Amino acid sequence: MDIKKMITDAVDKIKNDKDLAKKFQEDPISTVEGLLGVDVPNDQVEKIIEGIQAKLSLDKLGGALGGLFGKK
User: What pLDDT, on a 0 to 100 scale, did the predictor assign at position 72?
Assistant: First the structure.
């Protein structure tokens, strides 16, 4: 099970689907379980959620900084 790939795939899907992003904010556990399509132990789901949240935050920060310096 490649958790890094799961995180990257989930982030791509969440970033490109506003409804999915809203669902992830409201109920991250069931959203991630639905995205993965496999049964993952709770401790691993929580790590995946933390990874997704961190990557989304970094991407958002990077976009803001890029806009600040005239890049997008």
Answer: 47
